[in-house]
């Protein structure tokens, strides 16, 4: 593994138009289980499996693209993105695929949902304000849709809520042609830039205690999984560590609830599959092994 120390990275501040109050996280129920997207049956569908890769089960069955699933904080629902009504909307369903509900039902493209830690709100990205993706938040019933960012020419996407509800990390190309990781401070309506490495930094994921952010980075020439320490007051990042350090493409990490492991997508086995490793990068193990694309894992 490759470690990098970084100094002060508080780089840009953008005033926003709305704020969100912090919230208490819900406790997750039952044994760890992974939800993910797979094309193994011909198109993008949602599957679940045990955390050791056993009992892989398809839970959606539609000709449309169903992708980017995320467990609710209590593990009782799955939010995901689907174009089954003709454009990308945010949907929720039960863990067995029943109880499907379209939360956004808007002619724009609504993508990349993520739950608030209290399970009562969902943040997502949308191009409904003029072409570029911005961050929006709504209730878990799809009500009270509120715009969070207004970055004009850049794209704000892949939002993820911190465990204490005070921050939303996301990827954006606000200050360069490539993406960086930014953090929205909910109670001050301010955005801070947390990475500035030159290569694309994408798909942030908070550790369960909120002290680290895992993310995808191409700063070393190919996509790897990195972690960085998150600091507030002052807002800065440090201790950038390459966890995967492999010539293959590694991306889109997600933490287990106990912070001991990270699942992610890798093509190091010849196809895009779901892998899991210890949170320090040791003991990488392949969980899926099929010729289709397996991606976008989330662990409850």
Q: Would you kindly provide a written description of the structure presented here, covering whatever features stand out?
A:
This protein has a single domain, classed as TolB, C-terminal domain (Neuraminidase), CATH 2.120.10. The chain is 0% helix and 44% strand. It is built from no helices and 26 strands. It has a 5-stranded antiparallel β-sheet with strand order 1-21-20-19-18, with no helix packed on it. The chain starts with a strand and ends with a strand.
Q: Report the order of strands and helices.
A: EEEEEEEEEEEEEEEEEEEEEEEEEE
Q: Determine the CATH topology.
A: Neuraminidase
SS element count, helices: 0
Number of strands: 26
The share of residues in helices is: under 10%
CATH superfamily: TolB, C-terminal domain
Strand order of the largest sheet: 1-21-20-19-18
Summarize the structure.
By secondary structure, the chain is mainly beta.
Main features:
single chain; 300 residues; mainly beta; Neuraminidase; 5-stranded antiparallel beta sheet; 26 strands; globular; disordered N terminus
Layout of helices and strands:
Elements lengths: L1 E3 L8 E3 L17 E6 L6 E6 L6 E2 L7 E6 L6 E5 L6 E5 L7 E2 L7 E6 L5 E6 L7 E6 L6 E2 L8 E6 L5 E6 L7 E6 L4 E4 L7 E6 L5 E6 L6 E8 L4 E7 L7 E6 L5 E6 L6 E6 L6 E2 L7 E6 L1
């Amino acid at each position: 593994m490759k470690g990098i120390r970084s100094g002060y990275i508080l780089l840009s501040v953008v005033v926003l138009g709305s704020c969100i109050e912090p919230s208490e996280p819900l406790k997750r129920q039952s044994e760890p289980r992974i939800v993910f997207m797979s094309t193994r049956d011909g198109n993008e569908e949602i599957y679940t499996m045990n955390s050791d890769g056993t009992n892989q089960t398809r839970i959606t069955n539609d000709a449309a693209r169903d992708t980017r699933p995320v467990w609710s904080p209590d593990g009782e629902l799955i939010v995901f993105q689907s174009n089954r009504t003709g454009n990308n909307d945010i949907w929720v369903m039960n863990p067995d695929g029943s109880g499907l509900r379209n939360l956004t039902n808007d002619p724009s493209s609504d993508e990349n949902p993520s739950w608030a830690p209290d399970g009562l709100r969902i943040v997502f990205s949308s191009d409904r304000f003029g072409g570029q993706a911005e961050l929006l938040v709504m209730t878990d019933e799809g009500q009270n849709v509120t715009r969070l960012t207004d970055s004009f020419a850049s794209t704000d996407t892949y939002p993820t809520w911190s465990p204490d509800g005070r921050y939303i990390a996301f990827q954006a190309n606000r200050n360069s042609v490539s993406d960086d990781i930014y953090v929205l401070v909910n109670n001050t309506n301010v955005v801070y830039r947390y990475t500035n490495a030159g290569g694309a930094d994408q798909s942030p994921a908070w550790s369960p205690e909120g002290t680290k952010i895992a993310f995808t980075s191409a700063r070393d020439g190919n996509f790897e999984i990195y972690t960085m320490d998150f600091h507030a007051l002052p807002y800065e990042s440090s201790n950038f560590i390459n966890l995967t350090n492999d010539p293959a493409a590694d991306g889109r990490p997600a933490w287990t609830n106990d912070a001991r492991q990270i699942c992610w997508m890798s093509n190091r086995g010849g196809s895009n599959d779901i892998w899991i490793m210890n949170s320090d990068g040791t003991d990488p193990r392949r969980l899926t092994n099929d010729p289709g694309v397996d991606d976008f894992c989330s662990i409850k």
